[in-house]
Write a structure and sequence with these properties.
Layout lengths: L14 H36 L3 H6 L9 H19 L5 H15 L5 E3 L4 H6 L2 H15 L17 E3 L5
Parallel strand pairs: 1-2
């Protein structure tokens, strides 16, 4: 709730001035709320990206240190199925999954690395914190993260074919 500014009619303060002051305070509070929300989303994304992929570790047999292609494919399929089941109706899921499918289809059988340049806002703005957590989990178990490709807009990733998100 926006506190009412103090006005004094004896000093010539009008209703319009009071209304303008209320709107200014409300706008200031709204801007602060959105800045705090964005900062929290970025912190949550950074925390998720710094974690190892927990699903892959639980899914691989104990004797397997590196997944074979068939084990990795089963893990990816399982995580994708879970993501679709949990978040398939979320508005941001369609574009994300289409981009993810394009990444997998482009990479299949290729000897060249495919780099999917995905804007962080796709993860922070598409479906809430649970959606972001599961989308990052999907990426972490199915794709190799190359930090040398994360140097910002226009960064070049050596020996990579690009698969942009288009957004």
């Amino acid at each position: 709730m926006v506190p009412l500014p103090q006005t004094d009619p004896s000093k010539g303060d009008s209703d319009e001035q009071l209304l303008a002051a209320c709107r200014a305070e409300e706008s200031k509070q709204r801007a602060q709320f959105h800045m705090d929300l964005a900062a929290a989303q970025w912190r949550a994304l950074a925390a998720l990206l710094s974690c190892p992929p927990p699903t892959a570790a639980r899914t691989l047999p104990a004797s397997t240190s590196t997944p074979s292609a068939s084990v990795a494919a089963r893990v990816t399929k399982s995580v994708v199925s879970r993501f679709v089941h949990m978040h398939g109706t979320v508005l941001g899921s369609g574009p994300f999954l289409r981009g993810f499918r394009l990444l997998l289809e482009t990479q299949r059988g290729a000897e060249t690395t495919v780099a999917w340049r995905l804007k962080p806002a796709v993860l922070t703005q598409s479906g809430g914190e649970a959606w972001m957590r599961d989308a990052v989990g999907l990426l972490l178990v199915s794709a190799h993260r190359r930090r040398d490709c994360e140097q910002g807009e226009g960064a070049y990733c050596p020996k990579a074919q690009y698969c942009d998100d288009g957004g």
